Amino acid sequence: MLSPRVLVLRAPGTNCDHETVHAFERAGAIAKRVHVHALAEKPSLADDYQILCIPGGFSYGDDIASGRIFALELKTRLGDLLARFRDRGGLVLGICNGFQVLMQTGMLVADPDGQPRASLAHNRSGQFTDRWIRLEAKPGKCVMLQGLDQPFDLPVAHGEGRFVARSAADLEALSAAGQLVLRYTTDAGGQATNPNGSAGDVAGVCDPTGRVFGLMPHPERFLLATQHPSWNGRLDGDASGAGLAIFASAVKAVS
Amino acid sequence: MLWEVDVLSADSTNDHAARAVVKGAADLGIAACTSARTVTGWLIEGEMSKSDLERVAASLLADPVTEQFTILELSGPAPTAPNAAGFSPAATLPFPLHVLPKPGVTDPAAQSVLEAMRLLGIEATAVRSVRKYWLPELPRADAQRLAWKLLASDAIHDVVVGPLPLRALSGGRPWVFTEAAVELEGLDEGALAKLSRERCLALSHLELSAVRDHFATLGRAPLEIELETIAQTWSEHCCHKTLGSPIDHEGPDGAVRYDNLLKETVFAATREVREALGRGDWCVSVFRDNSGVVRFDGDHDICIKVETHNHPSAIEPYGGAATGLGGVIRDVLGTGLGAKPIANLDVFCVAAPDTPAADLPPGVIPPQRLLAGVVAGVGDYGNRMGIPTIAGAVAFHPGYLCNPLVFCGTVGIMPRNSAQAEVRKGDLVVVAGGRTGRDGIHGATFSSIELTSDSESQSGGSVQIGHAINEKVLVEFILEASRQRLFHAITDCGAGGLSSAVGEMGASLGATVDLDKVPLKYEGLSATEVWISEAQERMVLAVAPGDWEKLARVAADEGVEATAIGTFTGDGRIELKWQGRVAGSLDCHFLHEGRPRQRLQSRYVPLPATAPAWSATAASPGATLLEILAAPDVASKEWIIRRYDHEVQGCSVIKPLLGPGEGPADATVIRGVLGRDRGIALGVGLRHRVGPLDPWQMAAGGIIEAVANVVATGADPDRIALLDNFCWGDTRRPESLGTLVEACRACHDVAVDLGAPFVSGKDSLNNVFAWTDAAGKPRELSIPPTLLATAMGQVDDVRRVVTPDLKRPGSRLAVIGLTRDDLAGSQLEALGVVTGGSVPKIDAPSCRQTFRQLARAIRDGGILACHDVSDGGLLAAVAEMAIGGGIGATIDLGKVPTLLEGGQGRHADLAIAFAESPCRFVCEVDAESAGRMGEWLEGLPWAWVGEVVTTPAVTITGCFGAEESVTLDRLARAWRSRQGST
Predict the structure, then answer these.
(1) Contact B138, B162 (CB under 8 A)
(2) Under an 8 A CB cutoff, do B650 and A19 touch?
(3) Pairwise CB contact (< 8 Å): B653 & A19
(4) In this predicted model, what pLDDT tens digit does every residue of B518-566 receive, in sequence order?
C-alpha cells in the first residue's frame, strides 16, 4: 500500500517545518514542504495529499497578531481550499502558529453565523514562554487524538496561546459539541500546568467534523524520549515520545 | 490622506502593558498615574475611504473576540482639546501620550501591515506604527519623564505628549550627485585628530597621515566616500587593530616582543594543536571565514561564531541585542557556501539590577531596564528565526554599569566540502535581503570609540533595529541557493555595510559597484550612505553571470529581493559609481595593506599576594549556601531561559533546565541532524571576578570552565573547539594592554595543553565610559578584563549523555579534583564573607587528564549524574543537583580531597564548601558501578563524599560544626528568588 502524503504548508516565517516533516516521516508518511506562494499559484498541488499540516513559527513575523496574515492570505488567495480538502476526506492539522492560523480562518470555532466563538490571545503573563506541560485528551470524534487516553507531556513555546471564548455560553457550546478535545492538566505533583491562562484549560480544539485539529503544544518536539526534560537516567533513550502518537493517528486514519 | 486606526483590548483586565505603565509610574514617583490604557495604533497614508479602513481594521488589525478599534482621519485641522485626538476609552483617562519610531527607523509591524493590505486590494503609500497611552491628567513634565524613562528609547523613538500633530508621513527625495573631497593636506596632528573625531572616523592621526600621503602620490584629495571606506576597513571592529599589533610586553616572565600578538598566541595555539593532530586534524577552516568550521560526521561540518554587540546595546538594549544576534546568525549563514544556523547562545554582563538610580552616570540606562531590553531583543529575534537559544549566562559586576557586554553566538551545520568558497573574476556582486536605509551609519567606527555620556544623543544613527522575518526568508533563500550551488562566495553585510562586505570579497580581485542600483527603503541616501549603511538582514553573494537568472528565481520564490549591483573585476580596484559617474576609486592593496602599524608598549605587574581575611559574621555552611544560591551570578535564570524558544528544530537533548525539579544544566546538547545520534555540546566559561586580580588565571579559568561544562555531559575531550571573546577597557594604556597580553598568553598555553584549538574569536576594546559628575569632576569607569570562552564539544551518541540532576536514592556521590585555598574572586568573596587570598590557579595538563578519565567513566555508563563545580563551589553544585532531581543528598566536607592545610582554622568548612577551585566534578554513581570508580579515576584525586537520599534535603557534615540540614524547598526557593525581574 502507498504511504499517505502530507503537505506541510509554510509561509515566510514558518520555522517548525523540517521537524514536522520528520515527525510525519517517522509516523510512516511521505511529507513535503510546500510554500504558500507555490500553492497559491497552483492550488491543484493539494490534490496529491491526504493530510495538510500548518506547522509552528512566526508567519509573516506575527507582528500584528499571530497567524493573522497567513490566514488572510489563505482566505484571499486560496478561498475555501482547506474546507474542500477536509470535505474530500483530508485531515488538517495546525500546530502552534498553525493552530493560530486555523483559528483566524474561522474553520475551527465559528458559530452558525460564521462569527468566531473564541480566539487566541496574549498569554496571561504577557510573555513568550517555553515550558513542558501535561495534557489530557478527550478524543471523541477528533481523528488525530485517537488512542491518546492517558495524560501525556508536551512542550509549549508561544506568546499568544491563551484560549479566550466570546462568552461563557460559547465555551459551553464548544465543550458540548465535543470540540474542546485537549486540555492542560495537573502534573505528577498536582500542580496546574496551564501555561497561558487559557479558559477551560483549553490547549487544542477540533472542528465539528473532527477532521481539522489545532493545538498550541508541539507534538513534533516529543518524538523521542531524549527530548523530554527529565529523560536522562529515567527513560529509555531509544523509546518514543508521546507526540509521535498524534502523527501516527493522523497517518493511520488516512492509510 | 492620513488615517489612524486604534486597536485596544476589549477587556481592560487584559491590558498587560497598562499594568506595567502604572507600576513603572509608581516606581518613578508619578503618583497621579493610577490607571492607564494602551492602544496599538497604525498611521496609514494613501487614497482610501473610511470603509476601506474599516475592512482593514476588521480583517487585519483587530481581533473580533478580544479587541475593538476606532478610526480617525488625521488629515483635517489639528485638534485643539487633548481628548479630541481619538476616543479615550475612559473619562478618567483624557490624556494621550504617543511613542512612535523615528522616521527611517525599521518598523517591522508597519511593513507587515503595508504588505498585508495588498491582500485586501488596498494600497497604502506609507504605514507607521504608534503606541498610544491613555493616561489621567498629568503634569507635562511627568508625562515626559514617564515616556523617556519607561516607554521610549531616545535612539529610536519620537514621543508626542498630547494629540499627534502629524498630517502626513514624510517621504524623502532622491539624492543629487555631488563629489565631496576632504582636504587633508596641511593639517597637523591635532587638526587630523579633530577631523577624525568630527567625522566619527575613529582613525588615529598616524593613519590619517598615511591616507594623506597615499592621495598625495595620486595628486588629489580623498573623496568623502573613499575616506569612509578606509575608516570602516581600518576600524578596530573590522581588523583586530590592537590584538594584531606589534607589542613590546613586560610581564612576570620578563620582556617579550610580539610582531602580531594574536598570531603569536591564539592563532599559534591552533597551529600547534593541528600539527600535533597530524592526519587526525579535524579543523576545516579556522580564523579565515565568518565563523570557524570543524569536522562533525561523515556528511557534515559544523561551524560556530560568537560576536559582541556592546556599544549598540548600551544605547538601545532591545535593538542592539536583536541585531547582535541577527549579525552573528548571518556570520554563520555567510560561512563557506552557507551554513544552516542550528543553535544560538547569549551571554550578558551587566551591573547589579538593584544599582541605585543615584549611582547612574548621565546617559546610562539602569541595569534592570537594560537587561530586560537585551533579553527581549534576543528572544524576539531568535524565536522568530526558529533557531533555538540553548546556552548562555548572565554575569554581574559593578564595572559593567556603563559598558554592558552582550555576546551572541550561533552554531551552524553544512554539508562536507562546502567550507571553501572563492570569488571568481567576472562574478556579479549581488546584494540580497533587506533594503538599505540610514540605519547603522558608522556602526563599525562607533564600536571602536569609547562611549561618553553624550553617546546616547550623538549616536542614534548607529543604532540598528532588526527585522527578523527578513532574515528568516533570507536564510531559506541562501540555503536553497547553496544547495543548488548558485553562488561562488558569500559574506554578510555587517559592520561597515557594503563597504566592508564588498571590500573583503573583492580584496584581491577588486570590484566595480553601481551604488544607485542598491534598493533603498526610502529616497535621499547619498552614495556614501548607501555604501556604509549597516542596514540589517543583507548578504552579498558572488554569482557567475550564467547562474544569475536561476538565483533570482530562487530569491523570488522565497520572497527575497536580490539585486546585481556590480562585478568583481580583477583589476584590484574598488570602483564606485552613481548613475554611471565615478563616485570613488580605491586601490585594494592600499585599502587592505596600507594601514600603518604602530608598535605598542604593554606592562603587567602582578598584584601582591594577600592572605584571606574572614568576616567576623561568617555564618554556617548551610546558611551561607542559601545566600550563595540567591546571589545574582548563581541564581536561576529561568525568567530568561523560558523567554527563549530552546527546543525549536527538534534536536534538543540536554536543555538548559532539566530534571523533575527543573535544575540547571552544565552545557546543553543537541543532535546535529534530526534522526541521527551524534550531538553537539555547548558550554561557556567566564571568570569575570578574577579578571581584575589576575588576567592570566581569569582567561585560563574561563577556558577550563567552558570545557569542563561540555565534558560533564559526556562530550569527547579530544574534540573540543574553543572561541575567544576579549572585552577590555582602554588598551591604549600600557597597563591595560598588559593584562590583555597576559590573557592572550593564557589562551595559547591552555589551548595547547588541552589539545583544544581556537577556531574563531572577536574582540571588543575601549569599553570605558567618561563623564563629568555632579561636582564637575571628570570620571571614568572601565569594565573588568573579561574573556568569554566558549567550548563546542561533540558527543558520539546523545543517548549516553549525562545530566546534573540526581537520579536515584541509594547511589553514592563522589568528588573529583582537589579543593584548594583559592577564594579570591569567588562568590563567597562577593558576599563579603572573605576577602583576599589566592585566585584559583590552572594546571591545564592535569585538567586534560581529568577530562579524559571522566569521559571514559561516562562512556562506560558508570555515571548517573555529573555536575561541574564552578560559581558557588561544591555545596552550590550539590544543591543544584538535588534541586534538579527533586531528591536529597548528604555530603561530608571532611572527606573532600583538599590541599587546605589548616590555615583557615574554623573557617575550613566554608573554604571547602565554597572554594571555586577549577576542574572539579560531583558525580552520582550507582552501587553496581561504584567498584569501578577506582579504575576509571586511577591517579586522580577523588573521594566518596556522600549519598543520594529520599529525604528532600541536603545534609552537610562539617569538619567542626554539627550536622546541618537544609530542605530542598528552601534551597529551591533561594535559587529561584530572583525570578521575574522584568
Answers:
(1) no
(2) yes
(3) no
(4) 999 888 888 998 998 888 899 999 999 999 999 999 999 999 999 999 9
At residue B276's C-alpha, the angle toward residues B271 and B282, to 5°, is 75
Q: Given B64, B384, B807, which is nearest A13 (Cβ)?
A: B384
The residue to which cell 492538566 is assigned: A185
Q: Which three cell numbers stand for residue B727?
A: 572585552
Q: Is A240 on the interface with B (CB under 8 A)?
A: no
What does the angle CA B56 – CA B126 – CA B373 come to, to the nearest 5 degrees? 90
Given a cut of 60, is residue B451 above it in pLDDT? no
Instruction: Look at strands B405-415 and B300-308 and give their pairing.
Output: antiparallel
Q: Is the pLDDT of residue B315 over 70?
A: yes
B638 neighbors B662 (Cβ within 8 angstroms): yes
Kindly list the residues from chain B whose CB atom is less than 8 angstroms away from the CB atom of residue A23. 650
For residue B790, the tally of other CB atoms under 10 A from its CB is 32
Give the containing element (helix H, strand E) for B169: none
Q: Just list the catalytic residues of B.
A: 237, 309
pLDDT tens digits along B336-382: 999 999 999 999 999 998 888 888 898 899 999 999 999 999 999 99
- In this structure, the strands spanning B663-664 and B657-658 are antiparallel
Q: How many CB pairs under 8 A join A and B?
A: 173
Q: Which of A15, A118, A121 sits opposite B386 (nearest CB)?
A: A15
Contact B412, B419 (CB under 8 A): no
Residue B450 DSSP label: -
What pLDDT shows up at residue B443? 58
List C-alpha distances in Å: B118 to B31, B52, B123.
Answer: 45, 12, 6
| Pairing outcome for strands B292-295 and B283-285 | antiparallel
Burial B908-918 (b: 16+ CB within 10 A, else e): bbbbbbbbbbb
Q: Which three cell numbers stand for residue B412?
A: 551552524
Provide the residue ranges of all domains of chain A, joining segments of one domain with +: 5-254
Q: Give the domain A5-254 fold.
A: Rossmann fold (3.40.50)
Distance CA B649, CA B641 (A): 17
CA B135 – CA B160 distance, rounded (Å): 13
User: How far is CA A4 from each of CA A9, A21, A50, rounded to the nearest angstrom?
Assistant: 16, 13, 6
What crossing angle do the helices spanning B317-333 and B367-385 adopt, rounded to 10°?
40
H helix intervals, B836-903: 844-859, 873-885
- Chain B, 34 to 63: residues with Cβ < 8 Å from chain A are 59-61, 63
Q: Which residues of A touch B536 (CB under 8 A)?
A: none
| 3 state DSSP class of B830 | helix
Note if A96 is an active site residue: yes
Is the Cβ–Cβ distance between B766 and B356 less than 8 Å? Answer: no
Confidence of residue B982 (pLDDT cuts 50, 70, 90): very low
CB B787 within 8 A of CB B747: yes
- As beta bridge partners, residue B781 has B769
Residues 363-392 in B contacting A (C-alpha not used; CB under 8 Å): 379, 383-386
Specify the 3-state DSSP secondary structure of B64. Answer: coil
**Domains of chain B, CATH where assigned:** 2-161 (3.30.1280.10), 172-259+422-595 (3.90.650.10), 802-982 (3.90.650.10)
User: A191 CB near a chain B CB, below 8 Å?
Assistant: no
B544 secondary structure, DSSP code: -
Task: Report the alpha-carbon angle A78-A82-A88, nearest 5.
Answer: 125
Q: Nearest by CB to A121, which of B14, B61, B386?
A: B14
A218 catalytic residue (yes or no): yes
- Tell me which residues of chain A, numbers 60 to 99, contact chain B at a CB-CB cutoff of 8 Å: 60-65, 68-69, 72-73, 76-77
Nearest CA to B502 among B435, B440, B564? B564
Question: Which chain A residue has the Cα nearest residue B641?
Answer: A130
